[in-house]
Amino acid sequence: MDSPILQVKNLTKIYGxxxxxxxxxxxxNRGETIVIIGPSGxxxxxxxxxxxxxxxxxxxxxFLNGQEITTPEANEDRVRQQIGMVFQNFLLFNHLTALDxxxxxxxxxxxxxxxxxxxxxxYELNRVGLSDRADHYPGQLSGGQQQRVGIARxxxxxxxxxxxxxxTSALDPELIGEVLGVMETLAREHMTMLVVTHEMGFxxxxxxxxxxxxxxxxxxxxxxxxLFYRPQHERTREFLWKITELYGNKEEKHE
Amino acid sequence: MSDVPxxxxxxxxxxxxxxxxxxxxTVQGLAAGLVLGLLSALARVYGNKFWRGLAxxxxxxxxxxxxxxxxxxxxxxxxxxxITLSREWSAFLALGLNSGAYQAEYLRGSILAxxxxxxxxxxxxxxxxxxxxxxxxLPQALRLAIPAWANxxxxxxxxxxxxxxxxxxxLMAVGKTIAARTYNPIxxxxxxxLVYLAVVYLLxxxxxxxxxxxxxxxxxxxxxxx
Lengths: 255, 226
Ligand SMILES: Nc1ncnc2c1ncn2[C@@H]1O[C@H](COP(=O)(O)OP(=O)(O)O)[C@@H](O)[C@H]1O
Ligand SMILES: [Mg+2]
Description:
The complex is a heterodimer.
Chain A: E1 6-15, E2 18-28, E3 33-37, H1 44-51, E4 59-64, E5 67-68, H2 76-81, E6 83-86, H3 98-109, H4 114-127, H5 143-155, E7 161-165, H6 173-188, E8 193-196, H7 200-206, E9 209-214, E10 217-222, H8 224-229, H9 234-254
Helix pairs in contact in A: 3-4, 3-5, 4-5, 5-6
Chain B: H1 4-46, H2 49-63, H3 67-77, H4 87-114, H5 116-124, H6 129-149, H7 151-159, H8 171-182, H9 185-214, H10 219-225
Bound molecules: adenosine-5'-diphosphate and magnesium ion.
Adenosine-5'-diphosphate is lined by residues 15, 20, 40-46 of chain A.
């Protein structure tokens, strides 16, 4: 196996007096889908934001394709083009149609000619099953559709890694399935993905590895079956028990 | 009062010309004010301490003092510093600077209302800060500002009346001339008031049309939530 596509080494993040996480290390291999689980307030979102440099870490290093991206010389804007990000609250550009949401990064960041960008954007919209919604504005789309456009927008940049921060948490239960379905397809196509989610069905079925984070550190990580049926730590067992209790019923509906 | 129709027949060329100058002063002042207001709003939201301070100083100064004082300082005061401007330039400068201070506040409010999420999403696909401001934040902020901002053209149009004090031949100055020539101030100023009303009406209609044209389905609701 070749070297990890994304390496996080001893990453520490502090906000004011609060140590959000400390000494986090994580290797993500090419084509791997990693699901990060853990109680809220644990620093999962902050970790993802550090990885694509939306917020600076206090110490530690991050390597993307073997290159360190946490040096002062790294070009942040260039790095972010290679890391796709999907947000809990979608954050589509509200003044642009679905097509333009996907196109804008191609034309304005990658400086791709309009016709080619359009073709590529339509291809990405088709990938998430929304070519018939190309001309709709975010305000005219359901939450599930908005999130799929959000995924297409990130995919259009041809990122090396996709980060998902609770992509279905803001969705009505009946809309969760369509988004998870798109993510599952991506995983099958060997997109490298780092997914923060409470959807245990997705974690069990799709993840190659599950990482359990609590209070700013990684408690345990492993294959889904190992984590679910043979957790090494009592805290992991407790969390999984709680989360299945909370979200268990909802999952069955869309599986 | 009964002379009003006659005044229209007799002085319509002067009234039309005055209204044209009034409208020109308004449009020029608005345009200059939009540029100044936009720069100040951006400086206040995204600038460093220096630019923020400069913008705050400008906005407070021009919102906190009467337009008439600003106009006189520019027309009668600046020559004392060796800067002599024509009546037209003085009027343009005073109206533009004054309107810019008000527009800055409308625009700053709407930029803040867009929220940091949009900026983050722009940065996440590799946009630089200024590209995200230009491509993502401003197109939304400007649309969001329209309802509050739409008061400014009418308010500025009415403010232009004071520049007759430095003898710019706009509508109010035309009214004064008619009053002097006919010894009928009531008839003259009612006539002028009716022309102002008509111009304001046209301006409002144009703004409504323009607002409808840039409207984006489902955007207002989103904007208010943000
Ligand atoms: N910009 C910020 N400034 C200060 N504290 C923050 C900021 N963002 C997040 N935090 C804090 O960091 C902690 C972890 O938050 P977060 O990464 O959102 O956790 P999670 O995603 O696991 O729920 C929380 O206590 C939160 O209050
Ligand atoms: Mg979170």
